[in-house]
């Protein structure tokens, strides 16, 4: 009888633990806050808020400039010495894997700086050359209004922590916004081929085979 | 009873908002100081709870196994990188941390430990060292930021403290195999 009760207690404890981990990791799928955040974003499909962008050619516009086109986004700051460089180099590789006929017509690339104070158009213009971005179908822009910038970062779950030495700790990913201005996918920036084939598949089904 | 009062004192102190903010601002302190202190609070409460509800502990944790499994589950849960982030961003997670670590980890640990067989204790030492080793491996070698709220630098520091803690457990475990406490008059 006593033995039975201990076994019963053990079963309850194990079931509790299983439930705790099940809920805590969204059914054993998200073990980091980053994974959880990405899953939630893809589920919610938040809309790109109204913000004013200023790009490296000093053009000022909002995202509706690209209405009817997919927009592939990254969030960066030019003084960054590690993650952003890798992020942008990988974005360049994704860019190169997209068939030419879609580029500029059905999809544009955009790197948005979250350090508007230092990343003025001239800096961005200089920075874009490192990655062979043409400034047209792959633009680099800042959001001069800090409040608008924070709103966007918050909605897209981009976490940016300034370290007070001019640098930031931040998470990185590729963000795909659909022609209606809604975020449809957040992709692992280290998995270039997977991101490229995902984008290509979306373009093929949504836009059609153009070749 | 005295222990319970000390426990309560530490518990209330740890709950003070400035203390919470300070301890959680440093990753290593969050994981290796605040959380263990909360477990310790539970351990200090244990004698009082055992006296108040003797039947409960006697009945449901007779051989110590359910209790120690519960302890392992709760501490493993708080080692998941996501739970650390959520403790900072989701208030329900923070409240759960302050309840689960003392009452679902600290209390069952102290209640179970003396009831466990030598074999049971040894398995826990081995399991804990493996778990800490894995966590050290993850936190030191991960090239990515695992916790959004902390820098990679802090993450690496946490990995090394996991390794050190793990090593201490291994050393303690090995000495228990060779040193018989009774020879030194301790029982």
Automatic annotation (TrEMBL), chain A:
Disulfide bonds: 80-84
Gene3D superfamilies for the chain: Glutaredoxin (3.40.30.10)
Domain Thioredoxin: 42-204
UniProt entry keywords in alphabetical sequence: Copper, Disulfide bond, Membrane, Metal-binding, Transmembrane, Transmembrane helix
Segments traversing the membrane: 7-31
The keyword Ion transport appears for this protein: no
Domain of life: Bacteria
PROSITE patterns: THIOREDOXIN_2
Family as reported in the entry's similarity comment: Belongs to the SCO1/2 family.
Name assigned to this protein: SCO family protein
Organism: Oceanobacillus profundus
Lineage of source species: Bacteria, Bacillati, Bacillota, Bacilli, Bacillales
From TrEMBL, chain B:
Alphabetical keyword list: Membrane, Transmembrane, Transmembrane helix
Protein name: Uncharacterized protein
Organism: Oceanobacillus profundus
Annotated transmembrane regions: 6-23, 63-80, 87-104, 124-141, 157-179
Source superkingdom: Bacteria
């Amino acid at each position: 009888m006593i033995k039975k009760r201990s076994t019963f207690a053990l079963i309850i404890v194990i079931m509790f633990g299983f439930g705790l981990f099940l809920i805590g990791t969204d059914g054993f799928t998200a073990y980091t806050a980053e994974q959880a955040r990405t899953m939630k974003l893809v589920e919610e499909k938040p809309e790109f808020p109204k913000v004013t962008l200023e790009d490296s050619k000093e053009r000022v516009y909002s995202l509706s400039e690209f209405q009817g086109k997919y927009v592939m986004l990254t969030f960066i700051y030019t003084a960054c010495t590690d993650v952003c460089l890798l992020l942008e180099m990988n974005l360049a590789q994704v860019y190169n894997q997209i068939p030419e006929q879609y580029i500029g017509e059905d999809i544009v690339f955009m790197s948005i700086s979250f350090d508007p104070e230092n990343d003025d158009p001239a800096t961005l213009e200089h920075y874009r050359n490192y990655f062979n971005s043409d400034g047209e179908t792959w633009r680099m822009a800042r959001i001069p209004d800090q409040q608008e910038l924070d709103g966007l970062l918050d909605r897209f779950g981009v976490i940016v922590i300034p370290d007070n030495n001019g640098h930031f700790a931040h998470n990185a990913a590729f963000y795909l916004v659909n022609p209606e201005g809604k975020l449809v996918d957040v992709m692992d920036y280290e998995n270039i081929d997977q991101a490229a084939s995902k984008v290509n598949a979306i373009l093929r089904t949504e836009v059609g085979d153009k070749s | 009873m005295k222990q319970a009062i000390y426990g309560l004192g530490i518990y209330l102190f740890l709950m003070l908002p400035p203390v919470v903010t300070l301890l959680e601002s440093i990753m290593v302190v969050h994981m290796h100081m605040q959380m263990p202190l909360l477990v310790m609070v539970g351990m200090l409460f244990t004698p009082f709870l055992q006296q108040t509800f003797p039947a409960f502990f006697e009945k449901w944790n007779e051989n110590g196994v359910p209790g120690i499994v519960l302890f392992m589950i709760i501490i493993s849960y708080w080692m998941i990188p996501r739970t650390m982030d959520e403790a900072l961003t989701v208030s329900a997670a923070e409240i759960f941390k302050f309840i689960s670590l003392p009452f679902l980890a600290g209390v069952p640990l102290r209640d179970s430990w003396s009831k466990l067989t030598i074999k049971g204790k040894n398995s826990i030492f081995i399991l804990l060292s493996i778990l800490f080793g894995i966590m050290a491996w993850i936190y030191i070698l991960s090239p990515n930021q695992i916790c959004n709220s902390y820098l990679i630098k802090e993450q690496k520091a946490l990995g090394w403290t996991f390794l050190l803690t793990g090593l201490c457990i291994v050393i303690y475990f090995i000495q228990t195999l060779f040193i018989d406490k009774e020879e030194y008059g301790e029982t």
